[in-house]
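Inputs:
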Amino acid sequence: GNSVTQMEGPVTLSEEAFLTINCTYTATGYPSLFWYVQYPGEGLQLLLKATKADDKGSNKGFEATYRKETTSFHLEKGSVQVSDSAVYFCALAGGTSYGKLTFGQGTILTVHP
Amino acid sequence: GAGVSQSPRYKVTKRGQDVALRCDPISGHVSLYWYRQALGQGPEFLTYFNYEAQQDKSGLPNDRFSAERPEGSISTLTIQRTEQRDSAMYRCASSLTPSWGTGGNTEAFFGQGTRLTVV
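Outputs:
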């Protein structure tokens, strides 16, 4: 079956630091990959996505590249802000289980001024 | 409405009682998904619908859990004879395209969830 593994958190950074949150996956076929974000007190929001190998998803300064050879979809941002403090979830859809999302366990990010 | 709406936002129930959780998807969205999220974990898939048809219920943990979407819009997740282990955040999501669509366009919009506590 499908699975997603995220780096363990929590991650604590100073403002303007570089961010990487690692995500690797297991799936058959050609899944679509996503990063969702949950800000305090809010629901899950789609941050970015990539639907095929070598695609780069980007939004709000965040980027992630779909690497089929390493089955990875690492999230990066060059300069984080306090407002980026949230929980980040890597997820996949498709492969043998098209139509439903498989999530990683989430990574808590805290950014200090 | 503008987004996915879930009600109630919070539900406290006694062990053994039945509960019904409601999801009102974005208007026109074909697919509707239910997830359960334990504290400190990612959401786990329960079931999903395309229109009124339940396509996959493989994530429902046991036969106390059921879901319906009779008119292809609002959905209800029902938990019978609740147990303390059912305590979790229950999330609903909807997407515009059917899951069998091409191109992998399964972007899902999530509601704020219902926090269920069984005491």
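Remarks. Chain A touches chain B at residues 4, 30-32, 34, 36, 42-46, 49, 51-52, 89, 91, 93-94, 97-106 (CB under 8 Å). Chain A has a mean pLDDT of 91.
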